[in-house]
Write a structure and sequence with these properties.
ABC transporter involved in vitamin B12 uptake, BtuC, 11 helices, mainly alpha
Amino acid sequence: MQALFGQLLVGLINGSFYALLSLGLSIIFGLVNVVNFAHGALYMTGAFFAWIGLSSLGIGYWPALLLSPLAVGVLGVVVERTMLRRLYQLDNLYGLLLTFGLTLIIEGLFHHQYGNSGNSFPVPEALQGGSNLGFMYLPKYRAWVVLVSLLVCFASWFVIERTKLGAYLRAGTENPRLLQAFGVNVPLMMTLTFGFGVALAGFAGVMAAPIYQVSPSMGSSLIIVVFAVVVIGGMGSIFGSIVTGVGLGLVEGLTKYLYPPAAATVVFAIMAVVLLLRPAGLFGREK
């Protein structure tokens, strides 16, 4: 039972990161209509910003939790204003190719500067240790990651789906000219939306730094699974990304306990079945 619950905990932690990253992807695709392949590289950038801040500037985990996503968000704003904005009237493939190229550039820069080896980031002192629940040992930092990730995900969903600001964002996707006629600065809104989406990736990177090794390849090893999560949940579905991310993380953890060789492919097997039965995804809307 300890092995089972241990794998479920690992799955829940992975699912929390899947949910955070797929949420950012869904926000960007659903509201800006861009397939952001650079999301994994920006997740890695957020982790590296936190590590560089600690090793070079003495900036600890708690300030990095705010500053690193902010820096990644600013980087996303620059990318949107200087590059992506020129592609909005073109096919989605152009945005995908551009962000794929950005991924290669960003990862190449970090590879050149820091090499391929991973760098450790210490768990903050306040979250060290854990609790013995009887059936398993629960590290405090792991519990913190799951709790905060879910809070951020559902807070983002609430703002987009249940507030006036979210209504403006959705209206900007459906009819930007009409919304602009009411005095709303639609280009600025789209810029900030893209910045917020990539800031979520940077936030996930900071959260992941004390758990995984901070390395230039940490994003590329995760982004394919995150894209599968987005496809299963439904492209552009905020709620679908959150629920599917957490659920698939748990399925992955359970598979590692029952039949470990299948753990690496179970998400893609589920994606194939979902696409056969419901091409728009579990929570997506049929066109």
